[in-house]
Amino acid sequence: MDEELAAITELMDHLVSDQPLKLASLRQLSDLAGTEREIFAARWPELKELKRTEIARYLAELCQDNFSVDFGAAFCEMMVDDAANVRIAALHGLWDSEDVSLIETIVSLALRDSDALVRVAAAEALEHYVIMSEWGMLSPDVSPQIVRALAPLLIDETTAVALRAAALEAVSASGDVRVPGWIESAYSEADVSLQISALAAMGNHADKRWLPIILDEMENPNADMRANAALAAGAIGSGEAIPALAELVWDEELEVRVEAVTGLGKIGGEEARRILESLADDSEAGELEVAIDEALEELDLVSGDFDFDMFGLDDDVISDDS
Q1: According to the model, what pLDDT value does residue 322 have?
Q2: CA-CA distance, 315 to 322, in Å (whole number)?
Q3: pTM of the entire structure?
Q4: With contact defined as beta carbons under 8 Å apart, do 79 and 110 qualify?
Q5: What digits encode the pLDDT tens for the residues 107-146?
Q6: DSSP secondary-structure letter at 141?
Q7: Do 93 and 63 meet the contact criterion of CB atoms below 8 Å apart?
Q8: Quick one: which H or E segment has residue 39?
Q9: SS3 assignment, position 259
Q10: What is the distance between the alpha carbons of residues 214 and 228, in angstroms, rounded to a whole number?
Q11: Distance CA 17, CA 58 (A)
Q12: Across 270-285, average pLDDT
């Protein structure tokens, strides 16, 4: 038995045992392939449900902050786990996956899983595939495939609100001609959670036609509506929203202020920069310091003024010819 197979066998023996879980050792589950993956898949069901859930959640969190690990193969096995919490964690872990072979399984979970929360998580997991397809980072066939699959959830009046909201946001970046109608339908509903998802969908759809609605919602008494309107304005990227966002940076709710600052960073331009730099110097905006710094960094990145030297990258690494 070679070293890699011995290592995964030893790890699975440890995980199956009642010994305390060593989280650092779970990095070995990155890039599973071939016999290693087969060993993992065969032994995984032997773990107790509580431990499987803990591991799945830890891996999902780890890959959010560490781009050097790839738990896609492990998550693929976890998506068919008997425990709903494990399936949900695995779906969350696929937030940036480019593996289109997983789409069929994710769609199946969104449409047919026995657990309502799994169906919602699966629909949410499809959103980035649509965005990447629309942006040319994946095959152009991917987006229409997902829209066709989720369309029944959007036209069926019996679809649970949370699932309909997740499906709407998932398809909202698509160029499908039905998307604006689905957004308008959700926005017209009395359910606030659907209205909030409609605002998020407007931002993903990135069409200036939604700006009048978004600007109106920045004055909504509901803080969640104001926050999501600010986020949608940033996603659309129109300078017309800057004056309204400049007012929201002093909103009574911190969440709204943070999203307003984030929106300014996404829109960019000299006016947005002036507002953000003024905030950075304002002692009363101290709780926004992190959001302001991140917004200015994003603004610099979009404008081409980002300081790549801080990462030790030379010009060859970041040149257009790389």
Answers
A1: 35
A2: 10
A3: 0.87
A4: no
A5: 999 999 999 999 999 999 999 999 999 999 999 999 999 9
A6: T
A7: yes
A8: helix 34-43
A9: helix
A10: 9
A11: 18
A12: 90
